[in-house]
Specification:
It contains no helices and eleven strands. By secondary structure, the chain is an all-beta fold. The strands form two sheets. Strands 2, 4, 5, 6, 9, 10 and 11 form a seven-stranded mixed β-sheet that branches. A hairpin with a 4-residue loop joins strand 7 and strand 8 (about 75-80). The protein is globular and about 40 Å long.
Length: about 110
Amino acid sequence: QVQLVESGGGLVQAGGSLRLSCAASGMIFRFNAMGWYRQAPGKQRDLVATITSAGTTNYAESVKGRFTISRDNAKNTVYLQMNSLKPEDTAVYYCWSTGFWGQGTQVTVSS
């Protein structure tokens, strides 16, 4: 079955950087769009970024210019490079592929 396993979350000061990784298995990775969503306490789960099988990317307005999504088809892994982090980026970050979610990884940005 499809599994999406995130890693790389943690605690960072405002202005810092983190890189999230999501390792996929049980799917033909290179044919699938992938993405990242996030959910802050008491809020809905929102899109952060997506990347198609062809490498086309899409970002939420709030992260444009700060976050970069990328994929390595040889490693079946999608990444989210997060720079210039802000306290409002604090959330659980979820890896996504059509119909499937990872378990989430916590990102906390202190002011």
